[in-house]
Design a protein that fits this description.
single chain; 463 residues; alpha/beta; Arc Repressor Mutant, subunit A; Aspartate Aminotransferase, domain 1; Aspartate Aminotransferase, domain 2; four-stranded antiparallel sheet
């Protein structure tokens, strides 16, 4: 598609034009109608061709760049990423889990736990909770549904269809009380003896696999995530990844790497990818990225979601979307029962179904975006040469300070000064040889404390 070729797109009135343009270009690329490395028209030229504003084209391009469909070359233009061969490979054949927190209270805590108190919908949830207690009295006298109540599973399915780009059936959704219990369920269904996982990654997975007697295959990361060739070397048929905002590096798996991993999963019948969509709701420069599951033509992705970061960890409610091939195996687990209380499930079903959840997410994105900007500005004011990562999404960022100290020393000095943060090495099984990197969460610290905390942090390092 050269600059002289016009695009055949007719805009509808029921959806923002930039989203229609984004989906149109994404589909054209995925179907091979726009070839790999082909140059697109300039944003201004495309805006004139389509009769839309430049801002609409810019928003669509930003989203495609963030997802890895496009790349830009300065003063030359925008090109389609080299992923065409990977797309052909995965044509379908016919046949949270967080590190333990220290008990000590710190004056300035850049913890990964907790959520922002401002904007929390206490009154709305209290009203809904009181309503369901009186409205569903008969249901409270009966046993619950094994997969979780249908009302909540239907609401979750509708949300995933709208926000995460795929359309699960409510029957494929299973509700539980946390990521750990859902992972145990996956092991039961697959009988898998090992798990490949990102390194650095969630400590919970290391501990859980150890407790269950499962082998762990830690895989290092490059700029785009785990390497498929390294995954193949493990001989493992199950891998756990956080592709939309990798924890704790903050990187985003581009579409080409996602397709390569899906191609790996299609190479064997019992291979699956566990996608933990960790804090995917919070992206600040472009729309939330589509899930890996939205690209899953072979039904090889087990999708994990949670309300812990988007609402509150106090709900202890997570869910997974099972591939159809595993549903029969689940039905044979007659002893499995949903551990989440009926009142919690009903409350969330109404909170999500009545639109409160979407409004809450929109409100929290603004709050967290402001906190993130304060954190970034505070760091760069103290340390202009600092290298920040993962700062345009999620509820944490990574910091490589210009202070010539080891990770252990940086963390030790901070804690002595009353500041809690993490070393990247705390999340890794392999010994780190890279430059020191720290992980700072900002979901629960008050925004007025952020500049003071960063000032104290650098003061401790310079003393």
């Amino acid at each position: 598609m050269g600059p002289e070729v016009k695009m055949n797109i007719i805009f509808r009135k029921d959806e923002p034009k930039y989203r229609q343009l984004y989906f149109y270009l994404r589909r054209e690329i995925e179907e091979g109608k726009i070839q790999a490395n082909e140059k697109l028209p300039s944003k201004r030229m495309l805006a004139r061709q389509l009769g839309v504003s430049l801002n609409i084209v810019e928003l669509a391009f930003e989203q495609l760049i963030a997802e890895g469909y496009l790349y830009g070359i300065q003063r030359k233009g925008y090109y389609v990423s080299s992923m065409l061969n990977v797309v052909k490979e995965i044509d379908v054949p016919d046949s949270t889990s967080l590190p333990p927190l220290e008990e000590k209270t710190y004056p300035y805590s850049f913890s990964l736990s907790g959520v922002e108190e401002e904007g929390f919908p206490f009154a709305t949830l209290r009203k809904i909770h009181g309503s369901v207690l009186s409205q569903y009295q008969d249901e409270f006298l009966l046993g619950g549904e094994r997969k979780g109540i249908l009302q909540l599973r239907e609401r979750i399915a509708a949300y995933l269809r709208e926000a995460r780009g795929f359309s699960p059936q409510p029957e494929s959704i299973i509700i539980s009380s946390g990521t750990d219990s859902l992972l145990q369920l996956i092991f039961l269904l697959l009988g898998e003896e090992g798990l490949a996982l990102e390194d650095p990654g969630f400590q919970l997975l290391h501990t859980l696999c150890h407790d269950l007697g499962k082998d762990v295959f830690p895989l290092g990361l490059d700029q785009e995530g785990i390497l498929p060739e390294e995954l193949r070397k493990t001989g493992c048929n199950l891998v756990f990844i956080t592709p939309s905002h990798q924890f704790p590096s903050g990187l985003v798996y581009p579409v080409a790497r996602r397709l390569e991993l899906l191609s790996w999963a299609l190479e064997a019948k019992d291979r699956y990818i566990i996608e933990d969509d960790y804090d995917s709701e919070f992206r600040y420069t472009v729309n939330p990225l589509p899930s890996l599951k939205s690209l899953d033509r072979g039904d090889k992705v087990i999708y994990l979601g949670s309300f812990s970061k988007s609402l509150s960890p106090a709900f202890k409610l997570s869910y997974l979307v099972l591939p159809e091939a595993l549903l029969e195996a689940f039905d044979q687990l007659t002893y499995w029962a949903c551990p989440v209380s009926l009142s919690t499930q009903l409350t969330l079903a109404h909170f999500v179904g009545d639109g409160h959840y979407t409004r809450h997410l929109n409100r929290m994105r603004k709050i967290y975006k402001e906190k993130r900007e304060i954190l970034v500005d505070s760091i760069l004011m103290e340390d202009p040469n600092a290298v920040l990562g993962g700062s345009d999404a999620g509820l944490f960022l990574t910091l490589r300070p210009s202070i010539p100290l080891s990770e252990e020393t940086l963390v030790m000095k901070a804690k002595k000064k009353g500041i809690f943060l993490y070393a990247m090495g705390e999340f890794s099984l392999a010994k780190r040889e890279d430059e020191p990197v720290l992980v700072l969460g900002f979901s629960s610290i008050k925004k007025e404390d952020i500049p003071l905390g960063i000032n104290e942090l650098y003061s401790s390092w310079r003393s």
